[in-house]
Amino acid sequence: MAADEHHDDHGNTVSAWFLTVSWIVAWTVAAAAIILGGDLITWTVIGLGASVVLAVIAGVMKKVGLGRKEPRPVPPTREEWEASRKKVAA
């Protein structure tokens, strides 16, 4: 199994945007707390814990229909691309 086949792609969907924005917020809060004098280890653990919880929530959102509804598009192989270019040029 190739690495690409194992990757769980959320795509440009509600679940993907939720995960992106929520991680940005979680790590910004953790970084701000550290900068303002909070304990580095404590806030790093909080950031990691929040990341895991938010990833699980995004996964559930995907399962209930807020994720990709069709398979991820696969780019053509080099041979397919070259054949299509020759066809267009002819």
TrEMBL record:
Residues 68-90 are annotated as: Disordered. The chain crosses the membrane at residues 16-35, 41-61. It comes from the Bacteria. The keyword Transmembrane applies. Keywords: Membrane, Transmembrane, Transmembrane helix. This is DUF2530 domain-containing protein. It comes from Nocardiopsis changdeensis.
